[in-house]
Amino acid sequence: MKFFPLLKPLLVLVITFGFTIFFVLVFDPTYPKNSDTMARSFVLWLHGLGDSGPANEPIKSLFTSSQFKNTKWSFPSAPSTPVTCNFGSVMPSWFDIHEIPVTASSPKDESGLLKAVKNVHAMIDKEIDAGTNPNNVFVCGFSQGGALTLASVLLYPKTLGGGAVFSGWVPFNSSILEQQTPEAKKTPILWSHGMADRTVLFEAGQAGPPFLERVGMTCEFKAYPGLAHSINNEELKNLESWIKTRLQSNS
Predict the structure, then answer these.
(1) Which of 51, 96, 109, 197 is catalytic?
(2) SS (HEC) of 92-157
(3) GO biological process: any one (predicted)?
(4) How many whole angstroms separate alpha carbon 246 and alpha carbon 67?
């Protein structure tokens, strides 16, 4: 029965410690209560011709590393416009495409492209203004979205974490790079392309890295034998590793 006198001070200690933890969690403004407001990285995914943003959202479920716990994802949808290569049919499209298959020398809709780039830049600006480090911003895209990714990253005035192009092409002439800043040239590019692609020919993808190297940018190119115009899990797992090596810690 001699241990009963110890209960009272022990109970006081437990209650005091409990209220301290409660105060920190509820009232301390520096404690992270909402991971959405403290996202340390941002991944913007741009879909291909005729697709939609929501249809691509399952992609983020493959990024299981704990380093993506505070990543904000965005999957916007392109506006519906007439597309020349589909006989003027109206469909979701970031800019006009004149012919399919796309080759390294296909005609380019630079005016439509630059309009789309402006909209992508507005999305990036919004996230950076909300507090995300530009070095933790990654723009990724497939096919037409990959082409838009390339243009958006090359023409963004700041150095970003990276741009990832899947089955894309260079959608502009070299003269457009007169607008490029020295900071933009520091943004790394990951380029993945299927060797059996009959929609955006492999030669169109192969033309990308030499083009980028000529303007002083680094590009990691990965060819996938047997892969047609699609994206597979191997490419996405490689993207996950590529982004992880470039993530910056919170400031």
Answers:
(1) 197
(2) ECCCCCCCCCECCCCCCCHHHHHHHHHHHHHHHHHHHHCCCCHHHEEEEEECHHHHHHHHHHHHCC
(3) fatty acid metabolic process
(4) 11
> Which of 47, 78, 43 has its CA nearest to residue 61?
43
Instruction: Enumerate the H helices of the chain as residue ranges.
Output: 7-27, 110-129, 144-155, 202-206, 208-214, 233-244
Q: pLDDT-based confidence at 108, cuts 50/70/90? A: very high
129: annotated active-site residue: no
**Each residue of 181-191: pLDDT tens digit?**
999 999 999 99
Spatial CA neighbour of 221 closest among 195, 200, 247: 195
**Is 229 part of the annotated catalytic residue set?**
yes
List the structure tokens of 46: 């741009």
Active site residue 197: yes
In sequence order, the 6+-apart residues with CB closer than 8 A to the CB of 50 are 91, 92, 93
The pTM is what? 0.84
Residue type, 150: L
**Separation CA 29–CA 77 (nearest Å):** 35
Residue 92 to residue 59: CA distance in whole angstroms = 19
pLDDT band for position 249 (50/70/90)?
confident
The whole-number pLDDT of residue 21 equals: 35
Which of 93, 106, 143, 152 does the annotation list as catalytic?
143
Cα Rg, the chain, nearest whole Å = 23
